[in-house]
Design goal:
It is a single chain. The protein is mainly alpha-helical. It has three helices and two strands. It has a domain of 77 residues: His-Me finger endonuclease fold (3-Layer(aba) Sandwich). The radius of gyration is 25 Å and the shape is flat. Bound molecules: zinc ion (2 copies). The site of one zinc ion has 7 residues, from strand 1 and helix 2.
Length: 127
């Protein structure tokens, strides 16, 4: 019996991915809205005030940098303007704002390509 199971690659879970992404976006939108209801629309760093459409520039920062830690009382949130938020993460070298990279991963790759290795040897031989 030769029974070939044919799998159609067209069944790749694009839908699932799209759904997961939408889910995340919805969740982020939710905690943002909640944070905006809890806190005055002021950047916690520079004190800039936001009104109306400008509030788009106000973002939710997670104090412990954990996006999944969203206590209903907002104790893990801080409203920061885009600039201060960026600043915060640049300074801390924490990648929450940028995605997946983890701190400490920035080690120099071992360099195998040394264009001046030969030159170095030459200079040493001259001595
Ligand atoms: Zn600010
Ligand atoms: Zn943040």
């Amino acid at each position: 019996m030769s029974q070939k199971k044919t799998r159609t690659e067209g069944d790749m879970p694009d839908k699932i991915i799209a759904e997961a992404r939408r889910d995340r976006e919805r969740r982020e939108k939710t905690y943002r809205e909640r944070a905006l209801k809890l806190f005055p629309w002021i950047c916690a760093r520079c004190g800039r005030e936001f009104t109306g459409k400008k509030v788009r520039e106000l973002t939710v920062h997670h104090k412990d940098h954990d996006h999944d830690n969203n206590p209903p009382d907002g104790s893990n949130w801080e409203l920061l303007c885009l600039y201060c938020h960026d600043n915060e993460h640049t300074r801390d070298q924490v990648a929450e704002w940028y995605g997946e990279a983890t701190p400490g991963d920035e080690q120099e790759p071992p360099s195998t390509h040394k264009p001046f290795a030969g030159l170095d040897a030459l200079l040493k031989n001259k001595k």
